[in-house]
Amino acid sequence: MADAELAPETRRARRSTLRAFYSWAELVGHVAASPAKLLPEVSTPTPLPRPIPDEDLADALDRADDRRRLILRLAAEVGLRRAEIAACHTRDLRERAGRVALLVHGKGARERIVPVPEHLGRYLLTLPDGYLFPSDHPDGHLSPRYVGKLAAEVLPPSHTLHTLRHRFATNIYRASRDLYAVQRLLGHGSPTVTQRYVGLDVDELWSVVDAVADTPLPPPARVRVSASVA
């Protein structure tokens, strides 16, 4: 368990296996108490956000057919997960003041309304009624796994639909500096999760640090030296 060569995910999985085994052994009487209860937690480092670069996304869009292009745009421009993309239906489109929004069926049966960029919204209104990505089964849609597979066929090997979602989150945060807005658009239950999606480059962080450095500081306090008494 303490082998430094093992990835944190591997050590965490082994810890879970040992705890499950000894819990069973304790339950059936093979051991008086589970020694695995004493195993320390395995911390897993939070992965850095990996928003797809614009040039890689542009190349993928150029290679994609209409179906794959729509999948990519729903992830990159609307921030949808692959399961949410698979379940998109024309009945979920909402028109308001000439603009289009999408009712998204997210994780944990949570629903949210997400505004759609103008050009993409106009395109969605031209699609025939039904699922945007129908399957061969009547009234069915493609599976999330198959949606991911279609996207992977045109994306660079180092990127997935999830890194397109990272791009969406990063761009929204750059435009708004509002983490709560990003959280709502992504459908996260916690802003802690949302923070993992927002990737800022070093230049942007420098500008933040410089802004703090440029803030006028009060002059240093003068040190009062008391005169010695003769």
UniProtKB/TrEMBL annotation:
Keywords, alphabetical: DNA recombination, DNA-binding
Keyword Repeat in record: no
InterPro entries linked to this entry: CB, DNA_brk_join_enz, Integrase-like_cat_sf, Integrase_catalytic, Tyrosine_recombinase_XerCD
Keyword Repeat appears in the UniProt entry: no
Core-binding (CB) domain mapped to chain residues: 1-26
Molecular function terms from GO: DNA binding
SUPFAM superfamilies: DNA breaking-rejoining enzymes (SSF56349)
Boundaries of every Tyr recombinase domain copy: 47-210
Any one Gene Ontology BP term: DNA integration
PROSITE patterns: CB, TYR_RECOMBINASE
Name of protein: Integrase
UniProt organism field: Brachybacterium vulturis
